[in-house]
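Structure ticket #2291
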Amino acid sequence: MLHALLERLSPAVIPWAITGSCGFALHGLPVTVHDIDIQTSDAGAYAIARLFAEYIIRPVAYRESPTIRSHLGALQIQGVEVEIMGHIQKRLPDGDWEAPVDVLRHRCWIPFGDWRAPVLSLAYEAQAYERLGRAERARMLREWMARQ
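Resolution: structure written out below.
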């Protein structure tokens, strides 16, 4: 299924990267992957939705929770949910919002068969999980990086 994304999405045209458990698995962590999460810009979220219009199960729209805000939507491709997160921002301890995630700054490339998959770095992921108050997940990532 990941091949379908890599075939259609050009990282040169739309700044995007895989995040979450699928990204962790591509980095080599022994995790179970149930879906694919993609981070991109706000314009990228809507562009991805247009490219995969036939697979939309939740249209991309601006959404905000107490801890995170983004242009969110979802696709279902070959039975796998793909969550799209554009212009994602996390709330800081002082109540302000951090700057939107710069996907290009935190993106690295992981071999995947004949492809190279754009994936967020584990260092960035650990920092992001800490900001979300998910210390256990951040610790798991830092321990994995220390062993590599």
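Closing remark: The mean pLDDT is 93.
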